[in-house]
Amino acid sequence: MEVIGRHKYELDTPCLLIDTDKLEHNLRTMQESVQGAGKNLRPHAKTHKCSEIARRQIKRGAVGVCTAKLAEAEVLADRGIEQILITGPVALPLKAERLLSLLERCPSLMIVLDNSENARLLNSECEKKGLRADVLLDIDPGLHRTGVAVTEALETGSMLMELRNLNLMGIQAYAGQVQHVRSYSERCDKSLSCMNEVQEAFRALKKAGMKGRVFTGAGTGTFDIDTAVEDLTDLQVGSYVLMDAEYREIGSADDDNSFALFEPALTMLASAVSCNQNGFVTLDAGLKSMYKDGAAPIVLYPADRAYSYDWFGDEYGKISFDGEIGGLKPGSIFELMASHCDPTVNQFDYFHVVKNERVVDVWPIDMRGRSQ
Amino acid sequence: MEVIGRHKYELDTPCLLIDTDKLEHNLRTMQESVQGAGKNLRPHAKTHKCSEIARRQIKRGAVGVCTAKLAEAEVLADRGIEQILITGPVALPLKAERLLSLLERCPSLMIVLDNSENARLLNSECEKKGLRADVLLDIDPGLHRTGVAVTEALETGSMLMELRNLNLMGIQAYAGQVQHVRSYSERCDKSLSCMNEVQEAFRALKKAGMKGRVFTGAGTGTFDIDTAVEDLTDLQVGSYVLMDAEYREIGSADDDNSFALFEPALTMLASAVSCNQNGFVTLDAGLKSMYKDGAAPIVLYPADRAYSYDWFGDEYGKISFDGEIGGLKPGSIFELMASHCDPTVNQFDYFHVVKNERVVDVWPIDMRGRSQ
To answer: Does residue B235 share a domain with residue B271?
Structure first.
């Protein structure tokens, strides 16, 4: 089916749409905001998993892009994108072969370390190949998922400085636990409290001789908060570019009940498959397309009355409404904002890119499923 | 990385494994059980999304295979598999072009209908192309997801009989609401009660002149229960072939606390990425690999003590344990039984097929992401 030029509501379902005007609005707004605060942008590609969007982020001024996994970084490198930071520790020796091969063809790659034994293994693998790897010390700002404790940062960082085939470029600290705190002022307090502790550790490392000046962290929920951390150099925001119901629900600097600075660029189209019940119809999008995590998906279209979505098994959803069924029948189209954008995107192969409601392009989600 | 011949615990992670002996045990056990009860097997490919497994199901004696979606059926048809039943209603006119094209090249395709207007549209599309489509009337046994009410079955079925380009082959009724009822006796009562009501409607349709004799339904949870429904011809069981934590937890005929007749053929390998905390390590498998739905995933390896898994964001999991960290370090391997097999399988591109713990084959999950 040739899709270019079609109206979005004539597409087969379920599928993902990106509204290009909203996407560009989000790209521009974040770039200007972060740059205006004197920081750099290093957006996270784990959200969109699409090298075309990564390319646009760099074109607008990002200093690089982040991936969560080695396999995602391999895709970006294949597409000619450099300045990649893999934000999750890469375990050696398990992944040594793939990591060293990527380092060889993409020398600007940065990775994070939070374990001395892994650091020594990487150093000796690099030595064998005559490579030097750019690394960041991953510091745990309280999420307790990865990173060394703030109190261990100086010791581990000093050890890294002694490894001759590693360049310690600085530190990373991602406070995932504060990104979705609803109250903006509470989010401010929590994020600045933990990020300022990390900053102390960063300053101690510099005093101890660390040459690297990178201090990377933050997320969409703290994009205008962590800029107050003086030494922070760049922000790893991800969801802002697509947005989802989960982020729309938190408070923002302007409004403690909504986060509307970034627009819902990502939506999902689905259609009714069965309409024999009172008060609801069955949709063709269930667990395998609308990932079940986070806030309830928001029904954006039709807008004639309030509709709500709930999951109804692997392949089905339930669209509920008050009153009569009206004109709904099998094939009726619904447009929804995803509950949680990252894992939902990861269930599709393409974005249908829409401008003024018509499809203008199709972008492969080329990092989809790259979970290794 | 050449994987054939490798020990399973030397594979990169996260990845999915299928133990071929357990798979064959499940295939054989189900085929024998259903055949022994005088019924046919029409297993559901939506679970495994792998044409190689569908081929094995047919080879063992299945009369056909089910898919949930048109796009899955297209893949099976491309692989030369016939006798496909699409168990979800296909909405016209939205999907008319794809459906008619598939019907043309796969005349043994069966689809279900639960809407008169859609039936008329299909009939007229078939007429234009000189085709006759084999259809089943989808009857709702109480799940209220798809299907016409039992009380409407005679009227809608009679209408279908009058449409000259449709062959009414019989009925479908899937009681999804009873499959995971924990108590076996309660599951028996509930399933037989609703399936016997459907049987009455089936008999009324035959009395009214329906030639078709297909009465298809049931799932893994009622595979040895619905065989008592006299007119039921075939069982659409899906999960039995792979199994998951959700199904292992329900009761069975032999034991009201476990369902162990089918073996956990599907497992996921993951590895530790960060080990700096007390009482848990961070794993490289989160929402995007272990789908968050159903029962808690079960940690099968290592077996030296009890470990439990919990989700820890999009890309991470948390493995908790009592006591010291012991030998765990970045790269330590864990093998887990999936929470809910269907949506977890849908997040991967390959099964690594293992025999005696070594990889003997790699099967593409070629229906992965085919949600349309």
So the answer is: no
CATH (domain of A326): 2.40.37.20
Q: Report CB contact under 8 Å: A346, B288.
A: yes
* DSSP letter for each residue of B294-343: SSPPEEEE--SS--EEEE-SSS-EEEE-SS--TT--TT-EEEEE-SSHHH
User: In whole angstroms, how large is the CA radius of gyration of chain B?
Assistant: 22
Binary contact (B147, A115; C-beta < 8 A)? no
What residue of A is the nearest CA neighbor of B346?
A: A288
Please give the residue range of the domain that contains residue A306.
Answer: 8-14+260-364
Q: Are residues A203 and A266 both part of a single domain?
A: no
- Test A274 with B146 for CB contact under 8 angstroms: yes
Cβ within 8 Å, pair B115-A342: no
**Residue in A68, A115, A144 nearest the CB of B315:** A68
- Let me know whether A169 and A274 are in one domain: no
* Measured distance CA(A27)–CA(A35) in Å, rounded: 12
Q: pLDDT per residue over A61-77, tens digit each?
A: 999 999 999 999 999 99
Q: What is the pLDDT of residues B195-241, one digit of tens each?
A: 999 999 999 999 999 999 999 999 999 999 999 999 999 999 999 99
Statement: residue B1 has pLDDT above 70: no
Place of tokens 């008592």: B228
Whether B79 is covered by a domain: the verdict is yes
Query: What pLDDT was estimated at residue B191?
Result: 98
